[in-house]
Amino acid sequence: MQIACHRKVLGLPAITGLFSYLFLYGSAAAQSGYICSTENLDRSIEIIQPDYGNAVCKVLYRKPDEGAPDQFLWRSNQSIAFCEEKAQKLVASLVSTGFDCTEGSLEPMRQPAQPAIVSNKTPVDKIAQNVVEPHVTLASASSENTGQSVPAGGVPYQRVSGASDMKWHLAGYADATFIVRDFDGETTTDFSAARFNPGFHFQYKDLVLLEAELEIVVDGDGETEVELEYAQADIFLHDNVTLVAGRFLSPVGQFQERLHPTWINRLANPPAGFGHDGVQPTSELGAMLRGGVSLGSTIATYAIAVGNGPRVSHEGSISFEAATGDDNANKAVSGRLGFLPLPYLEIGGSFLVGDVTGVGELGDGHGDEVGAPEPIGDMDGLLPTSGNVTLWGADAAYTRGPWDVRAEYLNANRDMMATAFEGSIGVEMLPELELEAWYAQIAYRLSGITDHKILQRFEPVFRYGEFRVMGLDELAEEAAEERVDVGLNYWLAPSVVTRGVLEWRDFTAREADEPSSETRFLLQFAYGF
Amino acid sequence: MNKTILSLTGAVLFATGAVVAQTMAQSTSESTVAPQEADAASVARGAKAWTNHCSRCHNLRSPSELNAELWDVSVQHMRVRANLPGAVADDIKAFLMSSATSTGVQYSTPGQGGASVASFAHLSPGDPLHGKEIYSQTCIACHGADGKGTISGVPDLTAAKGRLTKTDEVVLTNIIKGYQSEGSLMAMPPMGGNPDLTEQDIADVLAYLRKEYDIAPGTE
């Protein structure tokens, strides 16, 4: 690179050198420094406090008599003492090689004839010439010039947490929703939900991150419910491998793990079949390996988990929510592979395989039915059996500029099995069950077409989705639906949104004489923090 | 047979993870004793990675929303959730932590009764060639190769009545000190989030933009 040749300071007299010096070092004053001299050479080590940027100090090493580039050897975002310590160690190193060091700084006039050439290099130039500032450069540069090993460990931006190994972060989200519902000729209005989901992240060095999230909601009776969304330890084994252990959000698909917080979700609720009691696994209790691999300018991602897996739900369907205790000896394996052929296009494929085991009698819905079933059987002597569960899915997301376009498909099958369920008389045979859900969603931020201070914050959204249930009529009547959502978001901040959503639901498996359509208007305020 | 395979898979997966964890814990611990390195190149890569990866799921949050330490933990959390390679997460940290300074961000329009406009008489005339290189390393992450912006809230630099129609002093002040226009969700971090850049670098970038999009500076 010949950037320096473009500088107008080339060949200008000394006053230009003085001017350039003041400018190049960020209008910063050298707070302290040392001049180290031999018979023929002067070098300086200066501690500079920049006027802008995060660094509170930098250590500038200058060797004007040798025509060598000026170098910022260390910097700290935290403490001037860091720079002072490094400077003093460098001074000691020079003294040991015969330099005589005293406090002071070289006059700017002592700069090389063209100071801008050496220090006005851009990061591009520095990178290209491998003279960028980190300590790896320091070692080689110092060994060339002093023959001594200079203490390593200096960094351009010292890790903020350098003073402590443990640090933490409170994150999460909260929302409040108001719903107007028109169903079977009756209109109701409710402030339907108030939710607070605090998330806690505790990090120990770069080795472990412990994270947990609670969901605190007010139910229909005014009672406060607290549930543990996830509590997991993330152990960073390698740049590309993280071991996760505990209760974690299922890696299957993209909505549950990554999009369900209301400040991220572009609409006020999950797509049909993608919330609780849907086909998408919500959480898992077990262990998981996950990570990503850089492929040029893009990445490929993976997650593979082993856990207790699904259970039989009260309705005789499949519950994909994590529970302590397994209903059989076989662990479920699930995961997702993702690939980004372009930085703004992601495609993924998911799977889950596992078993569910029937129960002899229903518990209270709080996990009592989990475990070895009581072989009481019904009057026909039928005993609970296990059924194999297989799930696969595909998802895609296009997120470029103001566009946010997504689609996701999930299909789960469970073998024929015997179990007790809600409405059964003892243990009964259930036929093969198939659950299928998909949605497509498109959102567009108006900032893509206008700079108007109000209009640019709006974002219209459209989503269509379906949830089908085949093999369990009662559940199909209750849950199978086609759903259309049209929403409008107004972003108060990147993570604060007010939205209105008009939603049409058509319950596709209900009897002809039963009401099968519902229209809802949802007004929601969501805040991610 | 199926049960056996599932159980075996689970056991092998867990055992593998445990063994790897144990064997690598020491080296990982040692490697983290040394402070993380985040050089200028890392900041530049981090700006691109931030726009590419974080916007896969949610709006990009302004770097000024959290301080550097909180970004450190937050990005570590997102490394897991988004399956980011560690090096990519470190780059994003470098960018966000270096951009997180809240000082200097202007929330009003310089030259219109708001923040003062700095004088840049000491700078050399901008060098478009050099400015192009700077732009392609740092600015391109948010503003895009075509200047129209890659993320919501980033202004179209090519617009006939856009940001570049302001005076050089106003534009340079906005870039150097940071800026957030009224109504915009995104704040321009000081020095584009790369504190290694100099004022002359920014002047060169501005010269490049004016030449590239043929937009002359305004008079007020």
Strand and helix map with partners:
The complex is a heterodimer of chains A (529) and B (220).
Chain A: H1 14-24, E1 29-37, E2 42-49, E3 57-62, E4 71-76, H2 80-95, E5 100-103, H3 115-119, H4 123-128, H5 135-145, E6 166-183, E7 186-204, E8 208-218, E9 224-238, E10 241-249, H6 255-259, E11 283-295, E12 298-307, E13 311-312, E14 318-319, E15 332-342, E16 345-357, E17 386-398, E18 403-414, E19 417-419, E20 428-430, E21 433-444, E22 458-470, H7 473-479, E23 481-493, E24 496-507, E25 517-528
Antiparallel strand pairs in A: 1-2, 1-5, 2-3, 3-4, 6-7, 6-25, 7-8, 8-9, 9-10, 10-11, 11-12, 12-15, 13-14, 15-16, 16-17, 17-18, 18-21, 19-20, 21-22, 22-23, 23-24, 24-25
Chain B: H1 2-33, H2 40-53, H3 68-81, H4 86-99, H5 128-143, H6 168-177, H7 199-213
Describe the structure.
The complex is a heterodimer of chains A (529) and B (220). By secondary structure, chain A is mainly β. Chain A folds into 2 domains: 3-160, no CATH class; 164-528, Porin. Chain A has 7 helices and 25 strands. Residues 1-30, 108-163 and 365-378 of chain A have low confidence and may be disordered. Chain B is mainly α and 220 residues long. Among the domains of chain B are: 37-100, no CATH class; 128-213, Cytochrome c-like domain (Cytochrome Bc1 Complex, Chain D, domain 2, Orthogonal Bundle), CATH 1.10.760. In chain B, helix 2 (40-53) crosses helix 4 (86-99), helix 3 (68-81) packs antiparallel against helix 4 (86-99) and helix 6 (168-177) crosses helix 7. Chain B is elongated and about 70 Å long. In chain B, 56% of the residues are buried. Classes of the chains: A mainly beta (529), B mainly alpha (220).
